[in-house]
């Protein structure tokens, strides 16, 4: 950011920035312990939380470029079914200079709900992680699924996957749409709103929705005819962006 000491506006901005920072620091200093009163039945609640929050680790295979570069340094060891042992990459500076040699050699263990190795297929991952959540959704439950990892870790592959090897999102949608059959709500009197809510539509709104839908299908047909699949490419761009989480809500 450019700085201009003679500019009053800028000075005001800097002062405002300082005030904002000050508030945040004060906030951080605040003792929040009193706001976290002990839970009445700590043991029960921790068991419940463990059941509700599942954390899976997926280790992807090396890409061909990585294999060609000889990047394998045996730093990740899976200890089935739920643990990984991480060691410093043997060529890393930290491994060579590590003051704690024993730590560098023995590594550190991390435990997850389950660890999936590089040979895991998209189908196996879906079966083991998300399929039961989808079943819950079909019975009225809600779930949030998201991927988390450094760039190039395999989040998009896991989430969307290539067309020929679908990830957890298209698989979830396939299960939902093939399961609801006659339970599809054919009327247009309600519309999903935000994540968990819906709005009831007036007659005028229903007519607007129907017109919007007709218009959308007409555009789709026209673009298919003229081979300019505008809608598809827009959707594809949206999907190929950073769509790496979805929440499963029940509107059935
Ligand atoms: N399970 C897998 N099997 C085969 N190839 C994979 C797998 N997971 C990821 N890849 C490949 O690894 C590369 C990186 O994956 P991906 O693009 O999904 O990473 P990402 O975490 O979404 O990255 P970014 O955060 O940068 O978007 C891609 O070439 C992808 O095809």
TrEMBL record:
Gene3D superfamilies listed in its UniProt record: Kinesin motor domain (3.40.850.10)
GO terms assigned for molecular function: ATP binding; microtubule binding; plus-end-directed microtubule motor activity
Start and end residues of each stretch annotated as Disordered: 1-21
Major place of residence: cytoplasm
This protein's record includes keyword Cell membrane: no
Source organism superkingdom: Eukaryota
Family the entry assigns: Belongs to the TRAFAC class myosin-kinesin ATPase superfamily. Kinesin family.
Protein name (database record): Kinesin-like protein KIF20B
């Amino acid at each position: 950011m450019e700085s201009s000491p003679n500019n009053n506006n800028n000075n005001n901005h800097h002062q405002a920035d300082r005030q904002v920072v000050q508030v945040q620091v004060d906030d951080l200093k605040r003792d929040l312990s009193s706001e976290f009163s002990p839970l009445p039945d700590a043991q029960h609640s921790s068991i419940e939380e463990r059941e509700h929050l599942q954390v899976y680790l997926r280790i992807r295979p090396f890409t061909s470029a990585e294999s060609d570069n000889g990047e394998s340094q045996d730093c990740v060891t899976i200890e089935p079914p739920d643990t990984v042992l991480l060691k410093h990459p043997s060529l890393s500076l930290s491994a060579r200079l590590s003051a704690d040699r024993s730590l560098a050699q023995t590594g550190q263990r991390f435990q997850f709900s389950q660890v999936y190795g590089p040979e895991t297929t998209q189908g196996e991952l879906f079966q083991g992680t998300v399929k039961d959540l989808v079943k819950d959704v079909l019975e009225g439950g809600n779930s949030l699924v998201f991927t988390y990892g450094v760039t190039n870790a395999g989040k998009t592959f896991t989430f969307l996957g290539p067309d020929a090897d679908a990830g957890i999102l298209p698989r979830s949608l396939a299960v939902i749409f093939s399961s609801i059959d006659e339970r599809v709500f054919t009327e247009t009197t309600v519309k999903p709103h935000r994540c968990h809510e819906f709005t009831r539509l007036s007659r005028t709104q229903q007519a607007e929705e129907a017109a919007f839908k007709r218009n959308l299908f007409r555009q789709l047909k026209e673009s298919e005819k003229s081979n300019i699949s505008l809608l598809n490419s827009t959707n594809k761009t949206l999907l190929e962006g950073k769509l790496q989480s979805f929440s499963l809500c029940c509107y059935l």
